[in-house]
Amino acid sequence: MSVAIRTSQNVLLEYEPASLGERILGTMLDYLVLFGWFILVLALPSSMGFRPNTFYTILVMLPVVFYDLASEWLLNGQSVGKLAMNTRVVMLDGSQPGLGAYLLRWVFRIIESAAFLGGIVPIITIAANGKGQRLGDLAAGTSVVRLKPAVSLDDVLIQPQAENYTVQFPDVRLLSDRDMAVIRAVIQQNSADTLQRTAEKIKAVTGLTTTLDDRMFLQTVINDYQFITSQ
User: Fold this and answer.
1) What's the predicted TM-score (pTM) here?
2) For the chain, which terminus, N or C, has the lower number of CB atoms within 10 Å?
3) Residue ranges per domain, the chain?
């Protein structure tokens, strides 16, 4: 089962939802981070004779209470556990998750934590939902998906162009690096329907016309853009 997300460029991308095991392991890693925090600010000082007062205890608990909300908001949909598992919170409508979405996910953790029915609620919800959503995800319109490697060899290595390379579509300079990243993802996905829609979108934006097939056209756009921006 995959999660289909339509980007703002009207390109349909498919992600694989994080498995239940990955979600649980990521949560356990986050709990380990919080356990380390308690050791650092409570257990260790207490072993040296420090006796925390109520105010200090409240200060210690604030990062614990707001850990999920703060980490997902500041780390673009990831926590330490999600970073380790290479997963991320995404919006199913293709938009960027905002504070409101993260806040909804955080609020629902009250009834989804291990302290409530042993954490069985999110396990049942994720297992029963085809898009890998817990209750907080359903309320916020989000899901947690597996990420492809953030940087692939195709993204890092600049394909060498011959010195006498001839640019076929000079108007590709109207596009951006972000557009190129989307085009590369579409080519790697290799879906005929997605290739066609993406090619039509690029033609509409740039006014380009060609007899090349969709895949070859998009690859040429990448090559031309790379050559132009490298000059």
Assistant:
1) 0.61
2) C
3) 3-146, 153-229
